[in-house]
Write a structure and sequence with these properties.
Length: 319
């Protein structure tokens, strides 16, 4: 415990020394979320993380999350140093959509507007016309539909399916998936709902369609958090990374939360409902990256500029 406190103290001192701020996602360890809050940084969904980084007056941003979040921060703030505790912290959606293959895929469907999820590499964003997050995907796709545009969507197949259902548009879809959300099981969720009949079901749209169909609320991490805070219900079954419980309990301590089942026989396998890449962010490697001012996100300038266009289009649309 003392060792942990010493680590936290050193991190705080290094943040001051380098005029640095922490930009953390809701899925990272509680301790990192608490540190970000205490030190004037932010804990947020991927859309707010991007906005915060762009508006921050810090010289250094330390992104506690996964690599695409660090890359987006760097795209928006090329003059800032963007560090991450571990650059190997990636995302199965990013890994499953390599830029070269994606460029070939897009070339097969010319005259389509290319819309990609934020959970992609800078190179993939550079190919795209629009970037969206689960926080603004529906509004942006509805807007494109109204303009009569034909859409290529990548990479998450479940999110793509949800967008199609909600907007009534058909898209040419890449077939990627999130290894965490893909594991939520509808049959077991049904059983858990029977056990807790009063509970409302909150689902991130990266989950399979059968799970999304059972939801009372579908949305980004931010939307799910708001639901716990603002809905009068006392119990919630949550189908997303369980580390979001830190923030949910902080904002609504009187609410009872259950992790949606990822395993058979109604088991709520906590370790399954947690992103292994988010889990690569810890106190020690956070301290080390601030000590060493590395590892740092570096982007090819041409890629950065192209990717920035599609990210900025999204940010301007969401304002
Ligand atoms: P949000 O955009 O909802 O924060 O989600 C990011 C993510 O990686 C979900 O798995
Ligand atoms: Fe990617 Fe899924 Fe992890 Fe989110 S939870 S960062 S989508 S692997």
């Amino acid at each position: 415990k003392q060792q942990k406190q010493a680590l936290k103290d050193e991190i705080k001192q290094l943040l001051k020394q380098h005029n640095a701020q922490l930009v953390a996602h809701y899925y990272v360890d509680d301790e990192l979320q608490a540190l970000a809050e205490e030190t004037g940084g932010v804990v947020a969904d991927s859309l707010e993380m991007a906005n915060f980084g762009a508006q921050s007056a810090a010289d250094v941003l330390v992104v506690c999350g996964v690599r695409f979040m660090g890359e987006t921060a760097k795209m928006l703030s090329p003059e800032k140093t963007v560090l991450m505790p571990d650059l190997e912290a990636t995302c199965s959606l990013d890994v499953g959509c390599p830029a070269k293959e994606f460029a070939e895929f897009c070339a097969q469907h010319p005259e389509h507007t290319v819309v990609v999820y934020a959970n992609t590499s800078a190179e993939v964003k550079a190919i795209a016309d629009w970037v969206v997050t689960s926080g603004n995907a529906l509004q942006i796709v509805r807007h494109l539909k109204e303009k009569g545009e034909k859409i290529i969507w990548a990479p998450d197949r479940h999110l793509g399916n949800w967008i199609e259902k909600e907007t009534g548009i058909e898209m040419i879809r890449w077939q990627g998936h999130c290894i965490v959300h893909d594991e939520f099981k509808s049959f077991e969720l049904d059983e858990l709902c029977t056990k807790h009949p009063q509970a409302k079901v909150l689902v991130h749209p990266e989950s399979p369609a059968s799970v999304v169909d059972q939801a009372d609320v579908v949305g980004s991490t931010k939307v799910l958090l708001n639901a716990v805070q603002t809905m009068p219900d006392k119990e919630f079954i949550v189908a997303t990374d369980y580390n979001i419980f830190y923030k949910m309990q902080q904002l609504a301590p009187e609410k009872q939360l259950y992790v949606a089942p990822t395993g058979g026989h109604g088991a709520t396998c906590k370790s399954c409902a947690h992103c292994p890449w988010m889990a690569m962010n810890g106190l020690e490697n956070l301290r080390d990256c601030l000590r060493n001012m590395a590892p740092e996100i570096v982007l090819d300038e041409e890629v950065r500029k192209k990717a920035l266009n599609s990210v900025q289009r999204m940010l301007e649309f969401s304002r």
